[in-house]
Amino acid sequence: MATTAQPMSSLPSGAGICTTAPDILYLPELVFGGLVWILVASTRVEPANPLAWVMFVSIFCFVMTFLWMVIFACGGHKNSYGWAAADFAYHFLAVIFYLSAGVVLAYITMGIKPAVSISPLFRIYQIDISAVVFAFATTLLYFIHAILSIIRWKNF
Which stretches make up the MARVEL domain (predicted)? Predict the structure, then answer.
């Protein structure tokens, strides 16, 4: 049985993005980033400005990761060196964005901790804790993707 394994120096396209090391992380990044977006949107937006940054990061990274995945799946990258560099640059930017959003969200969540667990704020507090966990998990996924992308870029 012959296999059509691509060398490390080529960029995948089509269904190949579901089998290569960095690109298999697109779907978990979308799921975890979408969960951050949903969880932050489902709570009260207070204070509005820092949570607006978290919403911007989660929506921006969700949309860009989806577009990036579609470009790779459709073969729009034409297997060029520039796309490998851009893949690393985008994922590194996403790491910085999500790390900053996770820290802001964690700080805000610590500030709203209710004194009593039967308080109406306790449910919002629990949702915000979930959002913080998913924000840092998404940061880790983007970080792993960035590391694997730079390795692929250097081996291109």
Answer: 17-154
Residue pair 62/98 in contact by the 8 Å Cβ criterion: no
Domain range enclosing 67:
22-154
Residue 13 lies in a domain: no
pTM summary value? 0.84
Q: How far apart are alpha carbons 130 and 45 in whole angstroms?
A: 15
Peptide linkage before 114 cis (omega within 30 of 0): no
Confirm whether 46 is domain-assigned. yes
Q: Is residue 55 in some structural domain?
A: yes
pLDDT (0 to 100) of residue 75: 76
Query: Is 10 in a helix, a strand, or coil?
Result: coil
Residue 100 pLDDT class (50, 70, 90 cuts):
very high
